[in-house]
Amino acid sequence: MKLMLIKILPLFLGGFLFAQTKADSLQFKRISDEMLVNGTAYENLRTLTKNIGHRLSGSEAYEKSTDWAVQKLKEAGADKVWKEEVMVPVWERGKQSLHIKTQNGKWKPLRMLSLGNSEGTKGKDVEAEIIFVKNKTEFNQLSESQVKGKIIFFNYAFDQRFIVTGQAYGDAGMYRRSAASWAGKKGAKAVIIRSLSSAFDDVPHTGAMRYDKDDTTKIPAVAIGPKSADELEKTLKTQKVFAKLNSNCTMKGEKLSHSVIGEITGNKDQSVIVVGGHLDSWDVGEGAHDDGAGIVQSIEILRTFKKLGIKNNHTIRVVCFANEENGVRGGNKYAENIQKNNEKHIFAIESDGGGFTPRGIALVMSPEKRKEVQSWRNLFLPYGIHNFEFQYAGADIEPMEKLGIPLAELVPDSQRYFDIHHTEEDTFEKVNRRELLLGAVAMGQLIYMVDKSW
Amino acid sequence: MKLMLIKILPLFLGGFLFAQTKADSLQFKRISDEMLVNGTAYENLRTLTKNIGHRLSGSEAYEKSTDWAVQKLKEAGADKVWKEEVMVPVWERGKQSLHIKTQNGKWKPLRMLSLGNSEGTKGKDVEAEIIFVKNKTEFNQLSESQVKGKIIFFNYAFDQRFIVTGQAYGDAGMYRRSAASWAGKKGAKAVIIRSLSSAFDDVPHTGAMRYDKDDTTKIPAVAIGPKSADELEKTLKTQKVFAKLNSNCTMKGEKLSHSVIGEITGNKDQSVIVVGGHLDSWDVGEGAHDDGAGIVQSIEILRTFKKLGIKNNHTIRVVCFANEENGVRGGNKYAENIQKNNEKHIFAIESDGGGFTPRGIALVMSPEKRKEVQSWRNLFLPYGIHNFEFQYAGADIEPMEKLGIPLAELVPDSQRYFDIHHTEEDTFEKVNRRELLLGAVAMGQLIYMVDKSW
């Protein structure tokens, strides 16, 4: 009798698990079919990018995009939609130009972009000799007298050897972020950096820089494209080159703005699952991959749960965060508010790596939860989602980590992202409908699993 | 003593395997670094697509491309380069136009492409009423009298629910291939098919059709874009629509042409490993993804083995096959010749799925060999190559299957391919440098493993 029990139990359990897996796998397919056939994410991205375009937080366009988000969340069937107040920095680019010339040459314009949050030249020409360094080590070897009164040019290239381009971006990131303060403290007039780009074109990339707290100089920082950078380095090896920078960019205090939130109410309890992206973008291009994609994917998930009548246990909440690009104020405010209001959150996922074919989900959570998510891997494999190894989460949801909330980020294929990231080329045309929707599929499927399991 | 031996052996073997894996992993990285940093595949693709452009076999452009391939193989360091003779069909598109009108309406042009290998109207207007069917089942229900003298419009759409788009392509493929003979045999004047496209635009896709052996009618077959197809179906639901087709396309016999072959000689023996793609393309666009990508990736592998001084045991041979698109004559001839010359081949791999980020390797080989390749999976994972489950090989190397040669095909991400496949949009601009090179990396790494193991 005992022997029989032992034999039956695993069979019974196996049968249960098999039936369970089969039901999950059918639900995965329902979500996928609905999005790939009837998904509205791509058309929503078209109206966001083409009717509104880029939308730096603090701008009029950003405020327009909050109205757009409210409308799209309502259309998707949200039970409740609201705006969450948040103070954001107001940075304005204004006019900008950079010219270079050799000793006896003529001024030649270079394609450039002031870095976000940078101060400008207040509309005056700032002229100086360019001093070239390859990297921080070379810069550190320069004495103050070698830097003083000069414009320092950092030509640190994206390391093409990284397979995941985000790692190359991380590797080169400090030059955009910090070079101005390094050089300012040694008396430089401005810095020019090589764009953080995986491409070999001449497109300049903007992006956030910051001044060190003890940096009182706040010198201007601008980026040039890879081609211009290579040519400039080459010229500087044989002769002196001078630069003339003129820019109006400046920080203009703060302003009241909003994140946009929509949700479908939980059927079992009111604890919250967040899915989101950031609604703001840099002030060039159309903010299509960064991060229009994450916004329309998140709305797509809400629409699909509603349309399929999936009875979610917990509240599923779409958060369109304000001000990721130059302050992360939306993300910080959201975490602050849920703590203040004592709102229980069981999970948050963000999509902010572009609307490219998804390949995995990055996880920031306890080892136990991590293992549990990884145990669902076979359900995801038919959708091309194979990598659950990365450990990072989107900047907007990161502030929730200290509250002990399990976090995740969609991991799209990374090869094309840093060709267009923070540039004029980040447009709707660069987004593929199916790739975009498959990102929503993967996140929707994960939310379905989390909702029924946690 | 026995116990000790048993314990030591696995330890020793484990250490050996670990050292071996480490050496392989270092070689994988050398191949990857060399290609991503110094790779010439992208610039080679630029000259192939921009200086020569599309190159249907039998055309002058195709012959130019064979000279280009000879030169590029020499530049890459091939020990030996030659052209292999092959007779190819000569199909010419000529002029083509399709107009439609409702009963009392005016003629309106539709964007269209004659299907490859199709006969035309010999330059005369062929007018008839359009009869719409959704699929083959609906067509089979039509009587001869309902089809006779009409132009049949098959509007079978790409099934968006497939995750791997090649499966949707396979599902819809028979309409392009066979609809003309189905309809011709029932007395139709021509067929219009909806393009095999994953996009929702209005771009027509060409591609090979064929007439059944018992089809003496050989009626013209043309493709229209998805948008036109949807609009036409909509109109046909409420009123009669007439079409006027005029086209000159026709098959003009055969012609002597060439595949192009280059190799680096084996250091241990002369048995051959083939890596290739097809040099011909359809006569629209630039044949960039299909299959310029496969050609330049294959040449890249030869260049990299030579540059890194990898001592290949076996001969590594790049084959740029002629006439894949409308005859597969190059592939058939190659298999015929190696059999005739009794040339031992141990492996062949093709890239003909576009120059997109690689995700896996499809395998056609014995279960034992298959398992062996799959046992190398961990070496490939850092490069994003995770899927070794598919069982298919490129059309050009398929004829080698009956010779018992293990075959493989690169599996790139499939989401964007069928938006542009066989269209004017298959241009260099649609190819990303890193994605293209990563395909070469994966194939180069696999060839390294096969070369040392088989």
From TrEMBL, chains A, B:
Q: How does it assemble?
A: Homodimer. The monomeric form is inactive while the homodimer is active.
A Pfam entry, by short name: Peptidase_M28
- Which residues does UniProt assign to the signal peptide? 1-19
Q: Where is the Peptidase M28 domain?
A: 260-436
Compartments in which it is found = Endoplasmic reticulum; Golgi apparatus; Lysosome; Secreted
Mostly located where? endoplasmic reticulum
- Give the PANTHER family listed for this entry: CARBOXYPEPTIDASE Q, PROTEASE FAMILY M28 PLASMA GLUTAMATE CARBOXYPEPTIDASE-RELATED
- What InterPro entries does the entry give? CPQ, Peptidase_M28
Q: What is this protein called?
A: Carboxypeptidase Q
* Keywords annotated in UniProt: Carboxypeptidase, Endoplasmic reticulum, Glycoprotein, Golgi apparatus, Hydrolase, Lysosome, Metal-binding, Metalloprotease, Protease, Secreted, Signal, Zinc, Zymogen
Signal among keywords:
yes
